[in-house]
Amino acid sequence: MQSAETLYEKIWNAHLVDRLPDGTCLVAVDRELIYEGASVALAGLARTSRKVRRPRSVLAMADHMVPTRNRAAFTGAARRFIDALRADCEAAGIRYFDLDDQRHGIVHVVGPEQGFTQPGLLMACADSHTSSHGAVGALAFGIGTSELEHVLATQTLMQRPSKTMRVTLDGQVHPAIAGKDLILAVLREIGVGGGIGHAIEFAGSAVAALSMTGRFTLCNMAVEAGARVGIVAPDETTFAWLEGRPMSPPPQYWNAAVDYWRTLRSDDGAQFNREVRLDVSTVVPLVTWGTSPDESVPVDGAVPDPAHASSPQQADAWRRALQYMGLQPGTRIKDIPIDRVFIGSCTNSRLDDLRAAALVLRGHKLARGVHGMVAPGSGVVKQAAEREGLHQVFLDAGFEWRDAGCSMCYGSANDSVAAGERCASTSNRNYENRQGAGARTHLVSPAMAAAAGVAGRFVDVREFT
């Protein structure tokens, strides 16, 4: 009799081709997403006269280096990378969404949005936030460039299986609490190294109540805990969200697909290597104060004192973070002024994210001296937002309304935060220099970012609304 399996184990074992004596596995890869950095892998294939084994399993678009305004005029290295990707995809027969294609956007937004990402698939991309796709029940993870070359040539990958961790989130949250607040709470609990070597399955009543947008945020930032995978078992919310999307199973195959997808859940009695359970009913909006995603406190709290750290190593890290961030221990979060607001990234640039921010901004304007920018996750998101009039809400509040792309999430050549400036950002990382050399990043939810922009400092969005 087959033993009970976790969801991760079910999908992994379904794709297992061979297992070596040392535990390394050869697994079949269903689909790949590539962006402009993949040109190196494609060039490697060309140098050795190898072809992409299954071009129709690949979806490509430029996202990291693309400008989010004045696209027709941009030049330089970014243009050369994008032109090379376009040419390589055309030569290989790979589907490519160009910059003038409405479907273009950030790969981790576009893949699920188009129905290219589906439950039970094993997917890979040369980007750490590929874990985002686990929100629909796919086993998705980032790989290196040499691994990508191997996958493109063989549709297989050599990898050791991960340990399993279940993070159960129970309790009813305040309507203003977003997926971003929940994942920041998880990171506070387990730390940025707490998920190393693990695949995290998010479960519990609070996860079941989340929209797909919230689930994407959870899985997107699972990698910030060091996990390779973030995944949520597909359910009725997932099926309703996927139905009718361009690359989803067509009507004649839909019921059969859903019947299979319903089996993608951890069996009763399945054993996880680690279990974490949080009651999130008391979670309040969180704001990061340091230079690591687990360094956050409630918005009504204060910057911690290194003297109260749990170890000398943590105390040293906190002191360095405080110096970089230009903060003093004991500073109230609500007393921290901001210079910029960024709403975007593969974490928080979907339509529901923009709706949440616009709901706060309606009838308000950015505080004097605060610069705001919105970069939708895709052209589809941008057009949907414009049909609802959300863009006008942002424009009326004083925000820039940009085109789709990774943008200020990682401080691209086109969009960055100046040294010493403080940004309320909906992105996923607050590392030193992440949004620009010397940039100071505070991670928050879209609604919290919008409220901070209006107030000119951090405020509790529950009170603001």
Tell me what the structure shows.
- By secondary structure, the chain is α/β, with parallel strands linked by helices.
- The chain has 3 domains: 155 residues, Aconitase, domain 3 (2-Layer Sandwich); 89 residues, Aconitase, Domain 2, CATH 3.40.1060.10; 178 residues, Aconitase, domain 3.
- Helices cover 32% and strands 17% of the residues.
- α12 packs across α14.
- The model has no long low-confidence stretch (mean pLDDT 96).
Give the helix/strand layout.
Blueprint (H helix, E strand, L loop, with lengths): L6 H8 L1 E4 L5 E4 L2 E4 L4 H9 L10 E4 L15 H16 L2 E3 L9 H7 L8 E4 L13 E4 L2 H10 L1 E4 L3 E8 L8 H12 L7 E6 L1 H4 L3 H9 L8 E3 L4 H7 L8 H11 L12 E6 L6 E3 L7 E3 L13 H14 L14 E4 L7 H11 L9 E4 L4 H10 L1 H8 L1 E3 L20 E4 L14 E4 L2 H10 L5 H4 L1
Parallel strand pairs: 3-4, 3-6, 4-5, 6-7, 9-10, 9-12, 10-11, 15-16, 15-18, 16-17, 18-19
Antiparallel strand pairs: 1-2, 2-8, 13-14
Could you say which structural class the secondary elements and strand pairing correspond to?
alpha/beta
Tally of DSSP helical segments: 16
Gross geometry: globular
The largest beta-sheet arranges its strands as 5-4-3-6-7
Tell me the name of the CATH class of the largest domain: Alpha Beta
Residue windows where pLDDT falls under 50 for at least 5 positions:
none
**What's the overall average pLDDT, rounded?**
96
Structurally, the number of domains stands at: 3
Sketch the major β-sheet.
Answer: 5 strands, parallel
Give the CATH H-level superfamily of the largest domain. Answer: Aconitase, domain 3
Number of strands: 19
> Could you tell me the radius of gyration in angstroms?
21 Å
Q: What percentage of residues falls in helices of 4 or more residues?
A: 25-40%
First-residue to last-residue Cα separation: 55 Å
CATH topology of the largest domain: Aconitase, domain 3
Q: Please tell me the CATH architecture of the largest domain by its name.
A: 2-Layer Sandwich
Please state the oligomeric state of the protein chains shown. single chain
Strand content: 15-25%
